[in-house]
């Protein structure tokens, strides 16, 4: 081999003395697409055969080491060489091969590193096997090689969670051999050189370290319980158990590969691939393409309640300067305590250290002087959810904020247009609907009012991204996308109580469907009083011809049962533990009798079908009204803000997969039971009748 670089498509080999440095470059994330696999195979074979080469180092250009298999190739006929073949060549290489990891080595990328004879990573790098999040299991040795390095218990935890493991922890677990001190590539080459003359340490040939079988069983049981109906974590247990049980590497790899192949074509994997790509697509808002956001350095937050404090923390975490306003000196003190309290908790859990906390709080000021908002480029109002309160604030804000500042309301339901008009400059006004706790939850609905300037909306999107959030842009309607859909399907669960179900039965059915928590347990956690206040406010304008459904909740509230915080709600709470309450059972039965509704045996499947149909029907209305342009926008809201199971893709995706004719039939059944207001949406009828899908739907403008 000459010392001139040898190029095989996206893979180039250079020589560092007697070490071949193999560099791959496949932007943006070095996915192991076919040309990369082929290039790597040839480069490794050449270096192995080259008498002038003693050792090999594999590294990547760009922002990261290999981020895994090319996901877009899944479901298509495989084109050789397969990743397994490439990894076999690396592991079998008679000369030492070292992986130099920067960025993230994920999935097949980390599996490639595991097939090398040693691994070095830079201090900021992370490794992981996130395949379960795509509905599959590692398919190129991850389930077989990680247990041989880190032991089966740690391996199971890592594979079933799909979490990223930082370099230092990876070193402690034995997954990598060294953390680079300064120059990753030079140190990788040096490491390769130091291994020359020793027999290569092949991960696949290592024995599985001794472990406690009871600990493994406990970890497996925990994984199975958490997975609920998601298949991939359960199948991952199977593959790791095989290694733990002493299977040889060949047998293990074959079994792993068989499970991988089986899962890659499954409905859950398809849904999770859709969720992966939609999460990225949703951030490309068609009508905002090319619109430059406004510059934002200082952000104001009006109100330091739970929501305002959470938003302030998220802004500080993103490196911004933050001015929080409150209405009195006492409230300023309480606001400061709330915000620093959140940092206190973050420190306690080890998420940040004292220096970081101090630096973040140094960018915060809390004041009772509204005029200080004049210094802000963007202001987020997080005051009480009341139109009069918000309009009064925006009236003042309109004159205090500097020209060109973006003014955002964190409303969950209220009309952003009416709030915008009160400011006198509605073109600057948008909605930024955060979810509680705002420093943790990823979803933000960016609400575009009828008069909002495009660059104001783009500014909201850009700020949310900068905060590490997932912005979904939508138009104005009652409850926007998420709360509007939630309101409809929650009503179906309320009806179910009146028609024969008990809260725990409904919760169990929806948890089996895949929600992390059933709706009544969630209601108890969130507090029943807010919904009660809203129902009382809307009571005078409620259509008496429509089924109500709120009677059970109203009665609970009238008894002072506001949920977990009062020790009782749909359940009772003893020492913080949720328990079924016979008093609620009686109350539910009494309400049915009073309303004259016959209590029938609860049919969980029917209820789930109705819940799903209600979601999809409302989604169809949202699409037809142009509140969002694409079905995927709706799915991403439900997945990231409402606990909808990701492995179902989202209600609109699932509806397409089931077939819209079936959903329409469910909706007709639901209409018959629930009465006026529950008619199938015209778009659902239209698409079902012509065999269309929501994914294929695009609204004719106008
Ligand atoms: C696997 O490896 C199976 C093996 O066990 C067995 C094989 C036999 N493929 O997220 P970003 C795209 S399964 C194709 O915005 P970031 C992404 O769509 C795989 N495309 O960047 C986006 O495209 P666009 C296991 C991919 O910096 C662009 O790259 N690996 C892939 O915020 C930038 O992505 C994973 O599951 C891919 N593998 O985050 C890792 N990855 O610009 C998945 C990304 O058109 N990837 N793209 O929208 C990630 O977690 C993040 O992308 C990463 C970077 C952390 C790497």
UniProtKB/TrEMBL annotation:
Name of the protein in its database record: 3-hydroxyacyl-CoA dehydrogenase NAD-binding domain-containing protein
Positions of the 3-hydroxyacyl-CoA dehydrogenase NAD binding domain: 299-474
Family stated for the protein in its record: Belongs to the enoyl-CoA hydratase/isomerase family. In the N-terminal section; belongs to the enoyl-CoA hydratase/isomerase family.
UniProt keyword Endoplasmic reticulum, yes or no: no
Keyword Coiled coil: no
Residue stretches making up the 3-hydroxyacyl-CoA dehydrogenase C-terminal domain: 479-573
Naturally occurring in which organism (per UniProt): Alsobacter sp. KACC 23698
Pathways per UniProt: Lipid metabolism; fatty acid beta-oxidation
Catalytic function, reaction form: a (3S)-3-hydroxyacyl-CoA + NAD(+) = a 3-oxoacyl-CoA + NADH + H(+)
